[in-house]
Design a protein that fits this description.
Number of strands: 16
Largest sheet: 9 strands, mixed
Distance between the termini: 48 Å
CATH superfamily of the largest domain: Vaccinia Virus protein VP39
Structural class: alpha/beta
Number of domains: 3
Number of helices: 14
Strand order of the largest sheet: 3-2-1-4-5-7-6-8-9
CATH topology of the largest domain: Rossmann fold
Order of helices and strands: HHHHHHEHEHEHEEHEEEEHEHEEEHEHEE
Length: 387
């Protein structure tokens, strides 16, 4: 894909501003500078997301849209841990997921309808010594309908843009429509669907006629993707597991919506310790389950409190240092350095507005929590994170 002199140019200019390189195009009449600038931009953008691929000088990166929807290496390897045997990746794209599946020992059939992208991916898989992957070009649903083989897993990551290039979220609006794959599920074959973090869990579960399990995959307290595992053992009340890939043990929390509904929540004033749920917990809708054994600040204020320290909370834990009103005099008293992180929960003013109004610098060891309490009053608490 790239000649030796092109690879050399990319490596020599890898840490430069791509715009500056593009402006110097006339200096390099024998090089396709727009192409090489695109490769440099991709490597700069993906150095944390795809470090193994970026480290290989021969890897050729496809157009930006394929990069946008691609998994990260971390999330791809997590998905690979869920699969086994013969796997078909119906939405192959730039091939990071297929690569991870093959590296985990699966036999992989990669399908991609864009011929150019499929050729780029086949080349990259060869360069990276991916393993057992067969590459196919064409419409994935047509290919699957004509395939006589049985698979252990069908994997699909539907395109989340419509024909006009607008972002879509609902399963039925994505391409391909994952619901059309349900007839292929049986006692041998399971379906794993990757979706946008914005997808509504309950609606998607109903659309799919139930699923066996939902994985909320997170990295550093940010939801990266949702995975729906559809098998012959699917349920309308599936187990939901929150995964935090930055932890040694990535399984952060497991629960069901039925268990969430059964809990009776107690509300009360803020006490010595304050607990802020992980982003994956909030996405799961475990607003009561996560705080079982704790007091919740208010029905729509997803913060929890206790007099005694609870060390197994699925989120961040803080020691409360002071509580008071959102007034300049009080803030200056408790924050003489004028520096703090700000977190708002069920509060009429946003974090940025508070920071601007009281001229607070971002960062430091303290966090200012602004929230509505159990008596429906606006309160502010100063807290320090407990490691």
């Amino acid at each position: 894909m790239l000649r030796e002199n092109e690879i050399q140019f990319i490596q020599e200019n890898l840490h430069r501003d791509p715009v500056a390189i593009a402006l110097e195009a006339a200096k390099y009449p024998n090089l396709d500078i727009p192409l090489l600038v695109g490769q440099i931009k991709a490597r700069q953008k993906l150095k944390d997301k795809m470090p193994h691929w970026v480290a290989n000088e021969k890897v050729f990166f496809p157009p930006a849209l394929a990069l946008e929807q691609s998994s990260s290496e971390d999330t791809a390897h997590f998905k690979a841990s869920l699969l086994r045997g013969k796997v078909v990746d119906l939405t192959g794209g730039m091939g990071l997921d297929s690569f991870a599946f093959a590296q985990a020992g699966c036999e992989v059939d990669y399908i991609e309808r864009q011929e150019k992208l499929a050729k780029i991916t086949a080349f990259n898989h060869s360069v990276l010594k991916a393993g057992n992957i067969q590459h196919h070009t064409g419409d994935c649903l047509k290919w699957l309908s004509e395939c006589a083989e049985l698979f252990d897993f069908i994997y699909v990551d539907p395109a989340r843009r419509d024909g006009a290039g607008n972002k879509v979220v609902l399963l039925q609006d994505c391409e391909p429509n994952a619901i059309e794959l349900i007839p292929y599920i049986n006692n041998k074959t399971s379906l794993l669907i990757k979706t946008s973090p914005l997808l509504d869990l309950d609606r998607a579960t109903k659309e799919l006629g139930g699923v066996e399990k939902i994985y909320i995959v997170c990295l550093k307290n940010e939801v990266k993707e949702l995975l729906f595992l559809k098998t012959s053992q699917s349920s309308e009340d599936p187990e939901i597991e929150v995964i935090e890939l930055s932890q040694t043990n990535p399984s952060l929390f497991i629960g069901k919506k039925s268990a969430e509904s059964a809990i009776i929540c107690e509300f009360g004033p803020i006490s010595k310790y304050l607990y802020e749920p992980h982003a994956g917990i909030l996405k799961a809708g475990f607003f009561k389950l996560v705080g079982n054994g704790l007091l919740k600040i208010a029905p729509n204020t997803h913060l929890y409190t206790s007099k005694e320290l609870h060390t197994n909370f699925a989120g961040r834990t803080f020691e409360v240092l002071a509580e008071g009103p959102l007034e300049k005099k009080w803030i200056q008293t408790v924050l003489p350095a004028g520096k703090a992180n700000i977190s708002t929960r069920n509060f009429p003013i946003k974090s940025d507005e508070i920071r601007k109004k009281f001229q607070l610098k971002d960062g430091g060891e303290f966090t200012l929590f602004a929230f509505r309490d159990h008596a429906n009053k606006n309160k502010v608490a100063l807290a320090k994170k407990i490691s």
